[in-house]
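Worked problem 6 (solution included).
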Amino acid sequence: MRERQQANGGFSFWPGSDTARDFPSVYALHFLIEAREAGFAVPADMLRRGIAFIREVADRKIANLADAVIRAQAIYLLTRQGETTTNLLVRLQENLEKNHKEAWRSDLTAVYMAATYRLLKMDGDAQRLASRYRLGTARSAAMGDFDQPLTRDAQALYLLSRHFESRARDLDGAILLQLLDPIFKGKTNTIGASYTILGLVAYGRLNLPEGQPESVHFQYEAVDGTKRPLDSHNAPFPTASYPAHDGQIGISGATPLFYANVQSGFDRTLPDAPSRSGLEIYRDYLDVDGAMVASFVQGQEVLVRLRIRALEAEHVSNVAVIDLLPGGFEAVRQSVSREIQGWRADYVDVREDRVIFYGSVGKSVRELTYRAKVTAPGQFTRPPAFAESMYDRTLKAATPAGVLTVMPAP
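Solution. The predicted structure is:
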């Protein structure tokens, strides 16, 4: 996070950028504040400078409701730090009444403002604003990458659970399952996931016996029926590791009980055919004359050409194009540029085993190129190249994997 914090205390979207942006700054500050309250060591200077920046964010004019929710969250976080924010709230509400009179009271903006009024001991205003937002009614149409229904509903659940306990306890179970439906369908992203964890933890604490710590037990049952308890630790909620074999995991404890299952590693079976879901990607290796290369020689330098396009949408933002290098191949760093044939990547990341371009694509084919050097002879797996939307997991594509042979240098 230090890499992305600017001199004015705000945070940029990408490392190396010199521009602080409102959304990542408010999002990062919320994370830092929650981390500190959970007992983690948060650098005081980073938090202090970040708070100074969101003071500016909280006092800016708004152009639309997307701006308003960021301003309202900034005001809420300042209030959490003990600042008196009544004037900021009044100015924001006056603006909303003037320009968004019919819409703002049922928006997430109103829930953040209600929570702030509650912190300021203005309970009448707080209760009136907290009552209008309805979980499960947000629609993804016209919403941005960082502002999806799950993200909004999870924030509302968090605020209600933390500041309006009786309202949170009255939520219908079917509404909560509807909120979680995008997760069950694999349609969440990192922002929605983080806010969902925040919301479910806050909601779960409402249902713990008063004065009792959270108690969750894990058990692993092997295929042969033997059972054994799994050791767990709080990080910050009960967490356990289990073997990646056939078997079953039993979890018991508080009611309601929410769980997250996390796995990591590599695919055992590589795809032998291209995949397309809203995006399409191709990869070729070219020689110095622009002809496609089918065989390679140690010491040779080739041009890697990636071609990508969107299949349906006119514009898809925040796409990651990930080119995994075969063993024995090494990217020529100085050949990887953010500026390629009139297109500018938001960010480029060159790693030991891959090159990643981040940016927007449309229906016309976008061609991305860089050079790679063949450094070792042998037979290598040619891993797939991927294109994936960072915030809409239904948009993705991959090239097939294969095998390539590199001959020793003469």
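Discussion: The chain has a mean pLDDT of 91.
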